[in-house]
Amino acid sequence: MSDRASLDPILEERLRALDRDLGRTIDVCDAKTRDLEFQQYPVDADAWNRAFKTVRASAHTAQQRIEDLRTDFAEEGEDARGAWRRHQLLTAETRDVCRACMELLGGFALRDHMPADKSARFPDQKICHFTEKIAELCNELTTPDLNPLLAIPAAEDPLAETMARIIRLRFPEWTIWTLPLVAYEYARVVFDDIEQLQAAIDDEVRRRMEDDEPPSQKDVALAVTTQLADVFGTYVMGPAYACAAVMLRLEPIASDGVEKGDLERAATLFATVQRLYGDEDPAVFVKENLRRPWELALEGVESTADEKRIKQAERFAARALRIVERTTYADAKFESYAETGEHWARAKKLSESWCIEQGGKGADPNAPKRFRLREVLNAAWRSRLMMPGSREDFAGLAREASDTVFQREAAGPGEIPRPKGAQPQAVR
Amino acid sequence: MDERELFRTRVGALAGALQRAWPRGTGYAGDGSVEADLHTWVAARVRLRVENLQGQVAALEAALDGGQRLDLCWRGYEAATLACEPLFEECLAVRQGVIAREAQLDSGICAIADRLLAEICEDADISWRRFTVLGAAEAYTHLTDVIRVRFPDLSVWDLPVAAHELGHHAAMKLERPTQGLAQSPFRELVAALPDECEQALEEYFADAFAALTVGPAYTCTCLLMRFEPHAAGEDGTPAPDRDRAYVLLGVLRRAVAEGVRTHEAHASAKLDQVAHLWDASFRATHGDGAPQADERLDRLVARLYAKLREALPSSARYRDSVHERARELAPKLLGPNYMAGPDAGGTVVEALNGAWLAHLEAGPDSGLRGRVTRNARRLMDALLGPVPAGSAT
């Protein structure tokens, strides 16, 4: 250590403490501090490493910066004031790394302790399994070369930035009804990895910034990213995504005068459904059972939308849909009828059988026997909107059906997604 | 279907979330573990809060059915959602923290923190039937009273900060006995200093509480490891580190002058050493040294010390016997072959101060400091004795 560095022992002490914290964090990432022996829900080393990969890399980067600071201070003439300022940045960086690590650690631990008993009111671990199944599906249909994502419970808003490549389930909203929104979470995590989608976001942000009075670039980017994630979610999950978003997330009234862009998001969702399904049954269902109550709610609270921004969102929905279509594989779209993959017709049939059962007419002998997870979620939302009073019963039926799918698919290999003939192309 | 359907759905979802946030009796331990403590001590408070919020949500439904205007209903929903957020965050954080502790991800530091806080509570006559868990930041929340220890600061040097968090609890619970009704020293302080921001006063109060109960160890942790010398309060922080350092040193000097009479010269010299280091860092970043005189802060120091002195018995304050034991421990902790046995005896407060004296003695020698760190941890583990894995104090 040079004489100059020794002039400020407190700074040296702080740097050592940061270095130590980062070292401990790396130890956790490397699973050196404990055996990975989660009791109920084992996490293999591969999954652990994937989840902690970015945290670990960030910790190493921060350690290198600490070393650079020491060197600059000792040899390159960095003054004390500058060194302390750099230390301040390093402290914030280290705090973020450690917070991300703690969140992952706590999430894994809590997930392991979720009761498996479905009668328990506490969210059970199957929701994590289902979530990962949906994320896996999104991966297969979009970027099979990316590793699948794990899901953990989290408190913060899922929009928050995260170092961990992980799906965050908003506590305590772990229900079958919010599962379609996993596609949104997935999109938020992987957008950076998919060049075409990132380029589409950049293009749209540029376009909107050319407006007369654009909001800040950060706000525009957030709005565009959110809307693209909504388009992706609707494309992959079908009407169930729009139902979950409108019925459980979007607010018809501005929060404390702060416009969150929910009216534009709703416009994006409805425009996407319209373009996806035209005048076919899914679009008719959404129009009558989702768009109508949304519009009634807007009227009820006398909420007025900015027409220009609504049109902007609808136009973007059309462009975004084309990009999502080109970026994903053939089975990605939740179809209206049997064409290439899972579809609304079977979901509707399943829903009708559930409604018959709930109507007191006993089990429907014609109920479909084989179905996929996306179909179950669409059937659940359709049933709920058709018979709101039986919501809890439909949740139970949907859970059972999802479990059946899960067990069946765990027993055998899944279908390999079929490319459309060419690799997805970048859209400019 | 009408314009109220969406609202009904949303309120139903919020009611469901409240049910799931803290479920009743589902597979929890009853074996004296932290998880059992969680349900014995924390559950009632959380359930009460859940019930209150459930009442708020039920009132929303009733208002809707009673023909209340829909926009007002949505405003009420917004308020209920905002009120639920801290509850949900706390439920998740506490549960994750407890599980992480049960899984020994804290390397045992929470048990030592529990012991430290139990010592302080017993001496200061504060009831805090809670425990510590790992968290993303040190924190105390009134909702559960559970104190979080910052991950990954799992070393003995960070332990004194837990006493500061307990100080926030003390701000609400510590009482000064009188012939009539007990008085709250913190409320008296707030009333006596109407020009001071209450949030800042609580921070200073927690600092002074930790300084008085833990002694120089807390001041060392703050000045040498936590406070930012370049953060002079320009950013509008209610209690900037510069002022906190001034108040801490002021309170501790008074405590030493009054309670550490036999070893006053030694204790004061060590305080001067820490103050000098802080001053040097302050000078390096500001050009000038740390403030040596501040009328407003001097008044605050005097009030804080007086109020806490009235509320804390001498056995709860830093004193000669603690400093003496710390001085005995320091050279042992610097030794290469220190082996703390089950008969180590003493308190965590003594061990912390012994460790900091050894740390200051070690100077910039990182090898020696590392040895002190390891020895101090051995000593504290020995103080706890053979505790069953994963159990509370």
Could you explain how this protein is built, in words?
The complex is a heterodimer of chains A (about 425) and B (about 400). Helix content of chain A is about 65%, strand content about 0%. Chain A has 15 helices and 2 strands. The termini of chain A are far apart. The relative contact order of chain A is 0.08. Chain B has a 3-stranded mixed sheet with strand order 1-3-2.
Element layout with pairings:
The complex is a heterodimer of chains A (428) and B (393).
Chain A: H1 3-6, H2 9-29, H3 45-75, H4 80-113, H5 126-142, E1 150-154, E2 166-170, H6 182-190, H7 195-209, H8 217-237, H9 239-248, H10 262-277, H11 281-300, H12 307-327, H13 344-361, H14 373-386, H15 391-411
Parallel strand pairs in A: 1-2
Helix pairs in contact in A: 2-3, 2-4, 3-4, 6-8, 7-8, 7-12, 8-9, 8-10, 8-12, 9-10, 9-11, 9-14, 10-11, 10-12, 13-14, 14-15
Chain B: H1 5-21, H2 34-65, H3 70-102, H4 109-124, E1 132-135, E2 139-140, E3 147-150, H5 160-173, H6 185-192, H7 198-214, H8 216-226, H9 241-259, H10 264-286, H11 295-311, H12 320-334, H13 348-362, H14 366-384
Parallel strand pairs in B: 1-3
Antiparallel strand pairs in B: 2-3
